[in-house]
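Support case: user asked for a sample of complex input and structure output to validate their parser. Sending the pair below.
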Amino acid sequence: MAGIRGYWTLAAAAIAFRLLLLLCFPKDLHLGSRPEVATPLTSLRRLAEGYWLKQASMSPYSGSMYHGSPLLLSFLGQLTIRRVEGRPPHFYCSLMFVVVDFITAILIRATGQKLLLSRHKSFQVLNLSKLVEASGTVNPGDFASLVYLWNPLTIVTCMGSSTSPVDNLMVVMAIYGACSRIAPLAAFGWVFATHLSLYPIILIVPVILLLGYGLDAPPSKLFLHKTSDASSSGALNQSPDKSGASKLTDNTIHTFSWVQVLHFVLWVFIWLCYVLLLSSISLEDVGGLSEMFRKTYGFILTVEDLSPNIGVLWYFFAEVFDFFRNFFLIVFHVNILFMILPLAIRLKHRSCFLAFVYIAISSMLKSYPSVGDSALYLGLLALFCNELADMHFSFFLFCGYIGVSLLSPVMHNLWIWRGTGNANFYFATGLAYACLQTVLVVESVSSMLKHDRMLRKLVKA
Amino acid sequence: MAVLRHSAAFPFLLLLALLICIPALVSGVWLNDDGGGVEEEGEQFSEELFLKPLPDRKVLAHFHFQSTVPPSAANGRHHHLFPKAIAQLVQKFQIKELELSFTQGRWNYESWGGSDPISSTNAKPPGVELWALFDLPVMEIDATWKDLTHALSGLFCASINFLESSTSYFAPSWAFRSNVSNLRYGALPREAVCTENLTPWLKLLPCRDKAGLASLLDRPSIYKGYYHSQRLQLTSTKSTGIVLKQTLTVVLKPDVQRNSAHSSLDKSIQPSWSVSSMFKKNVTGLCVPAKTSRIFFELETNMVVELEKLGYGDSWSNSIFDLSPNPVRVFKESNPLPGRSNSIIYEFINYSEHEPLDLGMKWKLPFIWSCSQAPFHVSRFLMGSGNERGSIAISLQSTESNKEFLAKSHGCNVQVLIFQVVPWYVKVYYHTLQVFIDGKPQSVSDVIEKIQVSPSEDKLFPGTLELMLRYPCSVQSVALTLDFDKGFLHIDEYPPDANQGFDIPSALVTFPNFHSSRSYVEDNFSINSPLLLKFQEKNVVRSYTEALLVPLTTPDFSMPYNVITFTCTVLALFFGSLLNVLRRRVGEEERLLNSKGNTTRIRLIPLLLSKFSSKLKGRTDGTPKSSSLLGSKFLLILVAVLAVLWHYISN
């Protein structure tokens, strides 16, 4: 139950480490132009170009350079202005991303604590307290937050000038808001995350489930089983606390709280109007909202930029015959959508985990993936360290991630800089990475289902 | 039969034609009788050749052919001298001005001159450059430009039609020409120039290359040169009609004629040359329709200065060199600054078929001079390595000529206009523009007076940068750098030899404060040579930079199928295994365990076989007798499958 000892020291050390990197290597890291870190959507260099164009009273989207949100432009643009002397141009942005990373970590921690509480509550209801004691629980909040902070991928993303820390913050904000049933916050996170990078739009399913059904819990069938048991035994024993517990389970499990969801929808509407209004104000003289949608969402959906990244789509669309292009665009995007419903049906009682799976799938199949996305879902994965304790292939996955993240820059260097390798080398690491993510998603889902099965067996026994 | 009928019809047709033509003929005669003035105003053609020794032992030959036609209303559709194709082009596309140049090699601004009229108007970037000014509403210009490129590409046997796509042409707003909106500019730096482009160009001349100066154009000798630029310039106005200027500028290196007496000096003496030795041909008579046919020879300013230092003045035959036939006339440049010697032009006219004019220059003593340079020497280069990113740098280095200018005026400012087009796959970050003055970084706003950027749009427009710099004359060097990312293209978008790289067209640098006009004093006659008149025009000094070659990364061109299969396999793996995990029933394991516990260990295949056989048995029992719902359904499906199969086989 107790948190990890020295959590705050470790978190502070992570922040200090970032600051140290920022101060010691102000110029020679060049992470901002790495394809693993900065995609055309999140590159801060492109943001600076967009800001410059906007200052020159042109549309920030003219020139196929900037594809991000206009709000980010007015928010971060000032910080990217080149100063003739002093700090390198992206210093202040990176400084801000350190803060953003810290907030994200705090929100993940809070989410984890909520998850832990609900887990204990449901185990108490199910008379499984011995399970909690036996497994020697780690506080998932502290653990996940530290995993997020100390993940090399997060550090690289934070140092390399890329706006994905902001995207990640919005996603985590949506999940935290939904977990703690703060509808305005959840709506804010969801709307902004969608506005920034489109893919979090699918998170509306877990967010609504979270708001409606509450936090992750064992399947409701178990509670029904238990309550029927309890009522029968309660009739015999007349024990007051058990009936109270059954009442509690009745409240938490069976009712889908429409009020919360309606509240959320209302707030989504408000925030949506707010975002659109702000965007249209900032793009008033230069282009308009239609250009914004075309250049941000259109750019994401049509995979126009074929520069290499850690995904597989860039090479696919650079090679595929033009007349198949539209077909495959549909196939790849529909693959994300196809998985929404089956996953939602099977994992509706574990909405937070569902959110993690959605994020992992979309970061695997998105058109311009970066390590920032992986940093997010790896951090969220650590929230379920207790449930996924007996996951298969975890060591293989760990080694795979390390291997790919070491090999991928090497292959990129061989191909782009030395000219001794070719594109296939780099694409191979991208394929390997996609396979690893596949295994991760599949294994985590299957072990979560197995965990539920085990609980059921324990309850029935 | 048809032939017979035609022959029968022929006299009638002839008669008809005569009847129709009589009034026209009469009126034509009457017009011609009206006086010499009309003849003066009619179509004219003149041919001129301009020769000039260059400091680096080479010779510049500049052919200038000019045809003019008065406003078309008077002349109708018929032309005597003027090429009909060009007249139609002008009429169809409503061209106000047009310039098309085919160039091979790079004009060497350092040793061939940068501020004289030839270099500022006739030095062109390598490949094809085309710009046109239309007399049309802005909406129609793009479509007209496309048609024009196709027409020109047919006319000159060149791939000018590649300029049709919107990624390769552009409308400069002020750096190319001041404030015009109906101008389009396009360049193809990689276009190879050869005789197939020269032949159609010569066809526009009234005598082709059969007579007159054009007969000098011996293909092997002119394509052997260091620089070859063939140009066509059109101006059309309502008042003056169409003026077509065709120029060909070549820089040739004369063969060294071994002279045993001066063997030790041979290396330092400039090689002697003559027209016949350079072109392997002689000027044999003039093109008869030509109004004037002249050859000019120029001693440039610095050369005259050096000669005067040695005390030879402007004589064409001195102890340093001899000009072989005596010139007819001498033009001296008149400079606003007194007490300075200026360039001299000698004119040669009197050649005929019987007495070919073999203009030659014979050097006797070593002689060194320098050419007149542009105020700043401009060069452009790429920085950085690798195929991911790089920077374009444009550097301006002050030259001697600028020092003279500086001596003239104090506290002055130099203005420089830079016009640069960058193809879309070179993704320039305009915010990274840096200016270095004398090697020190300078804040952009101090130096750049005016800037206009139109960023490139992927697969739609090229990016253009128009800059106006202003800095003090005392500055020795100015450098501009711009960072860019290299784009990645679809495999179909790469040209056949993708690993060679992609060309960025030359940037154009203009010095608006400096002009390359010359004025000549000639006592007896007014100057009526079109070439010298052109020299007198007030043109700004402009230099083109080098074309850049940017290597881009290539994907593996042989991989499409492999990439598609690999990617789809990974996707299928993901989709299949995730669905499999989700589909697995909760009670499945227990049931499996139960069945394992109950039954004896049955292998999978025997199990399947037994199931299958039992089904078959059931079916054979059931189908003939029973009319159960299941059986009938099965029958229906079977029939449908059979029908579909039959349909396929029969088709």
